Amino acid sequence: MAGNTSIFSTWGRNSRLYERYTSNAVEALSSDEQLQEAQAEWEQFFTDSHGDIFNGLEIANPRESLFIDTLYYDFVVDQIIEFAERQFGFQVVNQETNYNTDALSFSFQSLHDAIIDTDSIKRNIDEFLGKVDLVNSDSDFLRGLYESIISHEMRLQLGEYYTPRGVAELSVGELDIGDYETDTFLDPGCGSGIFLATCIDAKRDALGDDLAADALVDVITETVYGIDLNPVAVKSAKLSYLLSLLPVLEEADIDRLEIPVFLTDSLKLTREDEIRYSGESLNLTVDHLVGNPPWITWGNLSEPVRDAWREKYVKQLDLLPHHGVETRLGHVNDDISVPFIWVCVHHYLAEEGDASFVLKRDIMKGPAGRLLRTQQVNSRLVAVRHIHDFNRLRPFGDDVGVHSAIYTMEADEQPEFPIETDSWKKGSGKPEFSTADRMRDTLEHEETGMIPVEEDEPSSSWVREDAENRALGECEHDIRHGVKDDATDVYSIDRSQLAELEHDHVYPYIKSKNVVKYGLFGHELHLVPIKKANEDNETEMQNNCPKTYEYLESHRQALEDRSSTWLDKGTFYNVFGLGEYTWSDYKVVWCRLGFKPHFAVVSTVDDEDLGEKMVVPGDHFMFISTDNEYEAHFLCGLLNSSIYQKSIKGIASEGKSSLSKTVISKLELPEYRETEDSKRLAELSMEAHEIVPQHTDVSKRTYNKKNIEDLEVVQAEVDELVEGMLSEGSLFPDVGQSTLASY
User: How far apart are the first and last CA of the chain?
Assistant: First the structure.
């Protein structure tokens, strides 16, 4: 938009107009009863719908500050709309946000009149806007204007992440539009209106040559709808809608225009307003749902809103993504975006309609995304048809620390895998998201597919179809075998025997039953009489540990009867699978038998009788040893990630023996290098190892049936991080390690 930068400087937060308006508003609020009543009603409306977003904000008088900024933004938008009306000879009949519902009782216009003499500044506004080409403007400038007025802290609290046009174009482009003239569109959380503008542009492009201007305006305003619960968003979306229509309105003979953007609760949680449009009640059932729903966590919702969720939709639509949770929608950190779109599908989507939403990327993997991965709204199928995966790109800017994707879904269709996916990553230049074409020019993308890690469980974490190939490579670590003694009856020690032995050679010992993913499930006690295989320490043992030697001597016959050839050297109590690696500070361990690809880091444990002692892996175990804690946890994070787990299963299915050295050595397990990504992966593994012990006070069978939500959240981040690290085909590409900050 020509002159958009000037708009921010002329009317933004640092402008003279902002200072004049807001200072007048502060003064008027101290005495004007109309303003005071409006603020009280607005605050109550906001609290009911958004929860107490003002708590914890480091802003002076946050309630008053946001109210005044809301008034000011509404005032600025009014000036642009009124200028367009004068220039093009029509009237927007529902300029006020609450015109089509009873959401608010007061008029914003009347409040503006109480604060500032609008007539006195219209001449300056007309002079300035006269230099701006509104017809060819890009409504995306509203994002900049809004962000120049509403503080960053407040926007984050509101969960407002305004979508770049390029992302909106990709999203709308994935919809299966049958007839541009009759197909209907709804954005149920329309924000600044970028999706509405994109839908309008699509209709203009498709129908502009076939329909007269008047007819085209009618078609668009009867088929493209928006809803939002934020009065500022509704006003912004109306302007965005209007700007997208201006090229048609310029040619049309229209006196009155009603813009179908409505202030209400699309989920009907806090209010159930009747939407009135063109003088009649409007019941919305649409062919296509689009948008970027609010990214607000369950824990930040007000209790009345949470209660409304429970009462209205939790049981009705089976919205509990966490097994065993009876009193809440989900985990406190769960984002409500998926339940939001599930309810919208239920309320608004026509039979065999489709939807395209921008959501967090991690719902492909984490517990909060299980609801989407079920691909079912109660008994109604909602198949994910396509994904635009932005990996670790930041379409919303560096200030938004979450990664995103576009999910296109088709109602009343059977889900199928693999799900067609465009995987996007950084190109050689600076990424641009202003249009879909600029995205294609500045970014790279490849076609792939998403599949569930567990083939028989579609709601399990989704990984790339080519995940198995991505994690294949060369293991740069020695893979060792646990202690093998062929005399379990002799070397396995019961605690009642400890009084008869010195404790020098008794160690915590792990069997297959003792290891779960990211932790230990108890341990056994085992006699390990030597430090390395074939060591002759018999004299030392006789002198320093006579009771232990006497015990071994009493079992000499059984020990000498062992048939393994590796016992031909060393003492009669020789054992195999011992070396310096056994006594390393850290070991990444896994059971080689059966098929449970569970990896854990072990070091020492504080045994009730032995004190702090090194853990020794048993005969059924393989392990990688290291003295670097971060390296151990880095490798553990890789091996426990969904991509590596999928790869392990793929290798093992080729006929290899379970989780043998042969299997694990086919995986890309590099030497540890301290990068942002590798360090974070190690820290996540450490977090997981802290969580597991909190849940081991039950039987292992019971433990294996538990859904540990905190652990699932950590695992989801592990999966996302590893997937990003493998995106270039290597964990440490020659060009340098990608980081969360630079990717």
Answer: 29
Q: Are residues 595 and 672 in the same domain?
A: yes
My answer on whether 297 and 437 are in the same domain is yes
**426 plus 498 within the same structural domain:** no
Tokens for 322, please give them. 């966490």
Which of 317-321, 636-640, 694-698, 712-716 has the weakest average pLDDT? Answer: 317-321
Question: CA–CA distance from 327 to each of 295, 296, 315, 531, 560 (Å)?
Answer: 22, 19, 11, 54, 62
Helices and strands of the chain, counted as H and E runs: 27, 26
In a domain, 56, yes or no: no
Instruction: Output the CA–CA distances (angstroms, integers) from residue 617 to 24, 177, 317, 484, in the order listed.
Output: 74, 60, 47, 10
pLDDT of residue 728: 63
Q: Give the span between the Cα atoms of 342 and 289, in whole angstroms.
A: 11
Question: What was the pLDDT predicted at 307?
Answer: 84
CA distances from 172 to 69, 175, 176, 352, 406 (A): 32, 6, 9, 17, 10
Residue 513 above 60 pLDDT?
yes
User: Mapped to the 3 state alphabet, what secondary structure does 346-383 carry?
Assistant: HHHEEEEEEEEEEEEHHHHCCHHHHHHHCCEECCEEEE
Q: Do the domain assignments include residue 11?
A: no
325 — pLDDT class (breaks 50, 70, 90): very low
Whether 494 and 456 map to the same domain: the answer is no
Instruction: Map tokens 């400890």 to a residue.
Output: 498
Number of domains in the chain: 2
Q: Tell me how far apart the alpha carbons of residues 345 and 408 are, in angstroms, rounded to a whole number.
A: 12
Q: Is the pLDDT of residue 138 over 90?
A: no
Q: CA 526, CA 462: separation in Å to the nearest integer? A: 41
- Domain containing residue 460: 293-464
* Closest alpha carbon to 186 in 343, 372, 412: 343
d(CA 532, CA 686): 29
This prediction has a pTM of 0.85
CB atoms within 10 A of CB 281: 8
**447 and 347 share a domain?**
yes
SS3 281: strand
